[in-house]
Amino acid sequence: MPMQKNQIVQAALDVLDRDGLEGVTLRRLATELNVKAASIYYHIPSKERLLDEMANAILEEQFGTFDFENDQRDWAEWLHKVAHELRRAMLRHREGARVVAGAHPDIAVVLVKLWDFTIRVLHKGGFSLGKAGVITITMINFTFGSVIEEQASPPYAPGPPDAAQEIQSMGQRFQRVAIAMEAWMGGDSGAPFDTGVRIIINGVRAELAAEKTDAK
């Protein structure tokens, strides 16, 4: 049976989860799939294209069955949902955030669907298309950055063995920073993220109220 593109992408995700992003190469995939490199290049001509296909597959796992046309959430509910669902999608794979954040939208079409639907919901909620676009990118970029940092730290990546000692030492000079870091590193990693999402939503709500006031 001829090699299919989805087989290559799945093999790439398997290598990603096992060995990290640096381990994902087209030649490595040829070895994993026991085929000649030409069979890989026929479907996916470059590593850049491979990463885009991987990003789309990661998002498809989480959003592939989502009914964008019939969802009835208001803009605040949707912003909260899309941020958390995007985070879950990327956390399912080692360094998933690095893969998705660097994707090109012409290949990672699920990401474009998320942008489009979020802009549509915000526009329906009273924002101009331009402002809706800024809000959408702000929330998505916050999610990308948060998960990249999260996946670079335990339990997703090894941390310094003396992290607690480093925080204690820092506290001697920068007590407030040490307390904040201890709270961030010592609790549920999803809690600080949710706080950030709610701060953005509250800011968006204040922006909408200000726009309505200015329009009077």
What does this molecule look like?
The protein has two domains: 1-45, Arc Repressor Mutant, subunit A; 63-215, Orthogonal Bundle (Tetracycline Repressor, domain 2), CATH 1.10.357.10. The chain is an all-alpha fold and 216 residues long. It is built from eleven helices and no strands. The protein is 72% helix and 0% strand. The longest helix is centred in the last third of the chain and has 26 residues, at 190-215.
Summarize the structure.
The protein has 216 residues and is an all-alpha fold.
How far do the termini sit from each other?
Answer: 67 Å
Q: What is the top-level CATH class of the largest domain?
A: Mainly Alpha
Tell me roughly what share of residues is in helical segments. Answer: over 70%
Structural class: mainly alpha
Rg calculated over all Cα atoms: 20 Å
Give the mean pLDDT. Answer: 88
CATH-defined fold name of the largest domain: Tetracycline Repressor, domain 2
* Strand portion: under 5%
Listing every helix as H and every strand as E from the N terminus to the C terminus, the arrangement reads: HHHHHHHHHHH
CATH architecture descriptor of the largest domain: Orthogonal Bundle
Number of helical elements: 11
Give the full name of the CATH homologous superfamily of the largest domain: Tetracycline Repressor, domain 2
- Which residue ranges are poorly predicted, with pLDDT under 50 across at least 5 consecutive positions? none
Overall shape: flat
Largest sheet: none
**Strand elements, count:** 0
Into how many domains do the coordinates divide?
2
